[in-house]
Write a structure and sequence with these properties.
370 residues, Rossmann fold, eight-stranded mixed β-sheet
């Protein structure tokens, strides 16, 4: 019988490569699905754009700073809005998770513009998108990664201060970076983290030099390449063709963001107050929706030891999210440590946490529909 010979073969492969026997099989199934049902993205121009129009009308942002929203149709009734980090784009941020999300509902990718960025306009576009999706009877999950987690927190803070309630099904924050102090201490002569060294040149009084810009691009490229060095693990995650496609997309984003675009993204981060600054009954909770905050076991390459966001959510997350949980994502024995926001190279470590969270959301949706 084939199963009696196939299973030991996979077990031997796993023992030799220190890879779960399920992983290569999952990758084979996913790659086959991709071949017959490739990704189809549609650019979305929301019918609801009142908040955006207000910002544009008072010159709070320009058309060149508008976020591009892409939509992929899923099968369920719990949609997800992906807010990526500084790089890569949201579409690549969840490269290996998209089919997981599509089983739950539509996926909306919030891709930041390369030539500029406006925090006020991005929050307004998120206002409009959430309102439009919720009006269909499908409140979304906001899924924020790194800087995208900070954007989600800032949007929720502004929504709360405006006296409104965000119509969400849930919130997921992966390695959130919500303020400049998260990546380097204000009184430090030199940033202690890689990300801090990449961002610091954009926070000076004048424009960053060409050398500083190239250095920051090199740092972001190295951060990606560091995860791509484990060739054995990569073979269990994706095909060589997928890796080439992913690397080309990520490097294209790093090269494509203009000096102005990079500076305005960093300025947006600098404009976000640390979560510890609004630890007050007047500002909290940010949402009553179910929330999941995931920190990697190895955040020190990006998050400063004194990160206010990690301190606030790690020690008092129920004040911010009454129905929230904070979990640590760690590698399996023998595996490489899980790094900051490593949703691509440690997808199997993140999946159990995400699967449990979304399963509860689907159950709640079914009960409310009954």
């Amino acid at each position: 019988m084939p199963s009696l010979t196939f299973a030991p073969a996979l077990s031997l492969f796993a023992a030799f490569h220190r890879v779960s026997p399920v992983r290569p099989l999952r990758t084979l199934v996913r790659a086959t699905e991709e071949r017959f049902h490739p990704q189809v993205l549609t650019r979305l121009e929301p019918m609801e754009h009142r908040a955006q129009d207000v910002v544009l009308g008072r010159a709070g942002g320009g058309l060149h700073q508008r976020v591009t929203i892409l939509r992929e149709f899923g099968r369920g009734r719990v949609p997800t809005i992906i807010l990526g980090g500084f790089v890569p784009d949201a579409t690549e941020q969840v490269f290996l998770l998209r089919r997981f999300f599509l089983r739950t509902g539509d996926v909306f990718y919030f891709n930041y513009p390369y030539q500029g960025f406006s925090l006020e306009l991005a929050c307004a576009q998120l206002d409009d998108l959430v309102a439009e999706v919720a009006a269909r009877g499908q409140p979304p999950v906001i899924f924020g990664v790194s800087f995208g987690g900070g954007l989600a927190l800032e949007w929720l803070r502004r929504t709360r201060l405006a006296g409104r309630v965000a119509p969400l099904a849930g919130l997921v924050l992966v390695s959130p970076v919500a303020c400049v102090e998260d990546v380097f201490a204000p009184d430090a002569a030199k940033p202690a983290t890689l990300l801090g060294r990449a961002l610091k040149p954009y926070l000076g009084g004048g424009p960053a030099s060409e050398a500083a810009i190239e250095k920051s691009r090199t740092i972001f490229a190295r951060m990606f390449e560091a995860g791509a060095q484990n060739k054995v693990s990569l073979r269990a995650l994706m095909t060589p063709q997928e890796l080439t496609r992913l690397r080309d997309a990520v490097m294209g984003t790093i090269r494509g963001i203009t000096h102005t675009g990079a500076r305005e993204r960093v300025q947006a981060l600098a404009a976000m107050p640390p979560p510890t600054a609004y630890f007050s009954p007047m500002s909290l909770p940010l949402t009553d929706a179910p929330a999941l905050v995931l920190f990697a076991e190895r955040e020190e390459g990006v998050l400063d030891p004194g990160s206010p966001t990690r301190f606030a959510l790690g020690s008092a997350h129920r004040a911010y999210f009454p129905h929230g949980r904070v979990q640590r994502v760690a590698a399996l024995p023998g595996g490489a440590p899980v790094q900051h926001a490593s949703l691509i190279f440690h997808v199997f470590e993140f999946l159990p946490h995400l699967s449990g969270f979304y399963a509860k959301l689907r159950q709640a949706k079914l009960k409310s529909a009954a």
